[in-house]
Amino acid sequence: GFSRQMVEILHKHNVAFSSFDIFSDEEVRQGLKSFSKWPTYPQLYVAGELIGGLDIVKELEASGELDTICPKARKLEDRLKSLINKAPVMLFMKGSKQMAKCGFSKQIIEIMNNTGVDYETFDILEDEEVRQGLKSFSNWPTYPQLYVKGELVGGLDIVKELKESGELLPVLKGEN
């Protein structure tokens, strides 16, 4: 219950954080108590420094200090824009260039590799927030999704149509 309360407070304040399940490693569980000189869990650390447990976090929240101490999570829309613009040609897919994890992703990788155009990929199976958020952000309900210079080109069917019409290479090069 204490850990759940801590997570709720951090989410409520849009804090960027990660967690470690102390039940998954007894050595870490016991060692961290000695290291931190703090006998209970959860323990909140910011920039490697122990802030404290749930009671202290609640006090920091009440005083308004929590917002000044903890780093803020990036808003999903900002994160999506950053990912879309990570490379001039960006492909959101199931898997990676080296290992497509569905038939549609495999087909689009084959088409992309035959163009000779350099591109980056993002595995949507690795990040559920991006997977769901990008569908809404782009107003495109399926994957893969191809972006050129931050603009949605479309999915596999659109890429196939562009290839058949001879327009794919100019689109990938940002000429259209």
From TrEMBL:
<keyword id="KW-0411">Iron-sulfur</keyword>
<dbReference type="GO" id="GO:0006879">
    <property type="term" value="P:intracellular iron ion homeostasis"/>
</dbReference>
<dbReference type="GO" id="GO:0005829">
    <property type="term" value="C:cytosol"/>
</dbReference>
<dbReference type="Pfam" id="PF00462">
    <property type="entry name" value="Glutaredoxin"/>
</dbReference>
<dbReference type="GO" id="GO:0005634">
    <property type="term" value="C:nucleus"/>
</dbReference>
<keyword id="KW-0408">Iron</keyword>
<dbReference type="GO" id="GO:0046872">
    <property type="term" value="F:metal ion binding"/>
</dbReference>
<dbReference type="InterPro" id="IPR004480">
    <property type="entry name" value="Monothiol_GRX-rel"/>
</dbReference>
<feature type="domain" description="Glutaredoxin">
    <location>
        <begin position="89"/>
        <end position="153"/>
    </location>
</feature>
<keyword id="KW-0479">Metal-binding</keyword>
<dbReference type="GO" id="GO:0051536">
    <property type="term" value="F:iron-sulfur cluster binding"/>
</dbReference>
<dbReference type="InterPro" id="IPR002109">
    <property type="entry name" value="Glutaredoxin"/>
</dbReference>
<dbReference type="InterPro" id="IPR036249">
    <property type="entry name" value="Thioredoxin-like_sf"/>
</dbReference>
<protein>
    <submittedName>
        <fullName>GLRX3 protein</fullName>
    </submittedName>
</protein>
<dbReference type="InterPro" id="IPR033658">
    <property type="entry name" value="GRX_PICOT-like"/>
</dbReference>
<feature type="domain" description="Glutaredoxin">
    <location>
        <begin position="1"/>
        <end position="51"/>
    </location>
</feature>
